[in-house]
Write a structure and sequence with these properties.
Layout: H1 2-28, H2 33-99
């Protein structure tokens, strides 16, 4: 789990770096105030769309993971149930053998 947390924090730092770099570029760019505001608005919209798309992608991946986990649990439950039934049957067979002279 540590690797996943590290990857998430690296991604957060990456996004923060992009935002910081974009802000510096906008502050030092030779544009008029209106052009700069328009550019900031466009970049903010792009950023919002990117974050929305990434969060949707991550949500879908999490849903897939949960479904796989549910399937694995159901499969393990079936295997354990079959093993329990086989154990019960073997127990009853052995018990019947020992009771019959």
């Amino acid at each position: 789990m540590g690797e996943h947390d590290s990857g998430a924090s690296k991604f957060a730092y990456f996004l923060a770096g992009i935002g910081f770099g974009a802000a510096l570029a906008l502050l030092f760019a030779p544009r008029t105030g209106e052009e700069t505001r328009d550019l900031i608005g466009a970049k903010a919209t792009q950023g919002k769309e990117y974050v929305t798309a990434k969060s949707k992608e991550m949500r879908e991946q999490a849903e897939q993971f949960v479904e796989k986990a549910k399937d694995m649990v159901a499969q393990q439950k079936e295997q354990l149930s079959a093993a329990l039934e086989a154990g019960k049957q073997a127990y009853h067979e052995e018990k019947a053998k020992t009771q019959t002279p």
